Amino acid sequence: MASLDEPLDGIESRFTRAADETEWIPLSLTLVEYPQGDVFGQLLAVISLIPFAIVAGFITLILFRRDLHTVS
User: Across-strand partners of 43?
Assistant: First the structure.
């Protein structure tokens, strides 16, 4: 735990060093990364891709039905 007398530069360098030591793994076929061995981070990485899946689903639906009124 950092004391109140410790300069902010020391705290910042400690966080920077901890971030540099973490190995980040990319989710395949995307640029979303999560820390290696972190199951919760992997879950959040997958959840962050859900908007792209929704948009791709709507585009596919519109193209196959050929009707913009399909969405509404």
Answer: none
Specify the number of domains making up the chain. 1
Tokens of 56: 């791709």
Helix then strand count (H, E) for the chain reads 3, 2
**Rounded Cα gap, residues 6 and 12, in angstroms:** 11
Q: Rounded to whole angstroms, what are the CA distances from 17 to 4, 11, 13, 47, 52?
A: 20, 10, 6, 28, 33
Give 33-52 pLDDT, tens digit per residue.
888 888 898 888 889 889 99
Q: Which residues pair with 58 in a beta bridge?
A: none
Asked if the structure places residue 46 within a domain, the reply is: yes
Please report whether residue 2 resides in a domain.
no
CB atoms within 10 A of CB 34: 19
Q: How far apart are CA 51 and CA 23, in angstroms?
A: 26
